[in-house]
Write a structure and sequence with these properties.
CATH class: Alpha Beta
Radius of gyration: 13 Å
Strand content: 15-25%
Number of helices: 4
Strand order of the largest sheet: 4-3-2-1-5
Number of strands: 5
Largest sheet: 5 strands, parallel
Order of helices and strands: EHEHEHEHE
Helix content: 25-40%
Length: about 100
């Protein structure tokens, strides 16, 4: 069964050093390799990982990367073009607009 054309939404809320951050990236990489459209939203402590080289490499492979603008502001992180900084409305859109939605906390 081909997964090509399917969509998966990922939410990561833990800091980049946490094992679940890396698990989320591994799932994203595997899904991209299978032809799945991947939408990843970094919230809370995960916003610090937006500049992670592995995450940015996934973005170059087609990952759609979003990050919580409020979370970045609260952590004194500058907004950049490394991700689309947005609010929680995007999370709602990802939950309703993807075939599967997975959270890594």
């Amino acid at each position: 069964m081909s997964l090509q054309g399917k969509k998966i939404g990922l939410l990561i809320s833990v800091r980049p050093e946490h094992p679940n951050f890396q698990r989320g990236l591994k799932l994203a990489a595997t899904a991209l390799a299978e032809g799945v459209s991947v939408y990843l939203y970094c919230i809370d402590d995960a916003v610090a990982g937006v500049t992670d080289p592995h995450l940015q490499a996934l973005k170059e492979r087609g990952l759609r990367l979003f990050a919580c603008a409020y979370g970045a502001q609260r952590r004194n992180l500058a907004l950049s073009d490394k991700a689309i900084f947005a609010g929680l409305t995007v999370v709602t859109d990802l939950i309703s607009g993807t075939d599967r939605f997975v959270s890594f906390n």
